[in-house]
Design goal:
The N terminus and C terminus are likely disordered. The radius of gyration is 18 Å and the shape is globular. The chain contains four helices and seven strands; from the N terminus they run E-H-H-E-E-E-H-E-H-E-E. The longest helix is centred in the N-terminal third of the chain and has 14 residues. The N and C termini lie far apart (about 65 Å). A five-stranded mixed β-sheet has the order 1-2-3-4-5, sandwiched between helices. A two-stranded antiparallel ribbon has the order 6-7. It is an alpha+beta fold.
């Protein structure tokens, strides 16, 4: 059944036996190398302590059409949305919102922080939110000065 035939979408907890290959395929189709296209790394990342992973699945075909990876501190105050992906041919159909709603329900968090790519800003702005600046830090990458990256070298005894 094709997307255009209004196939129902359901949100489910990630189950490696049912969903792992679909999540890896979705990452590949979007050219997201977050898990280096490695099924074992994907599995370990989506099942790590403190992670809630949800998938959006086409009810009839069982195709994975979206997924979310959320980290939570476990007490219901805050969480971090690490990844939210929806297959390009299934976008603008409420799947991202459904995954977000289900994540809040499962985790019970009062708020969820995230870093958004430029192309996803309109989606996140459509949700109840407070917008603020954020950063993604990388070890040893350096410090930004005037738009250019300056490498920080740590030396012993200097």
């Amino acid at each position: 059944m094709e997307h255009g035939e209004n196939q129902a979408i359901v949100c489910e907890a990630f189950d490696a036996d049912l969903h792992l290959s679909g999540v890896v395929a979705l990452c590949c189709s979007l050219e997201w190398d977050n898990f280096h296209y490695d099924p074992d790394l994907t599995l370990r990342s989506l099942t790590a302590p403190g992670v809630t992973a949800l998938v959006a699945v086409a009810r009839n075909s069982r195709e994975v059409v979206g997924f979310a990876q959320v980290f939570s501190e476990g007490v219901g105050l805050q969480a971090h949305l690490s990844l939210l992906a929806v297959d390009e041919k299934w976008r603008c159909g409420g799947i991202g919102g459904m995954l977000m709603e289900e994540a809040f329900e499962k985790i019970g968090a009062e708020r969820m922080d995230l870093i958004a790519s430029d192309e996803s800003l309109d989606f996140y702005r459509s949700l109840a939110h407070r917008e603020q600046a954020g950063f993604r830090l990388h070890p040893g990458k350096g410090r930004t000065t005037g738009g250019e990256v300056e490498t920080i070298r740590q030396t012993r005894g200097a």
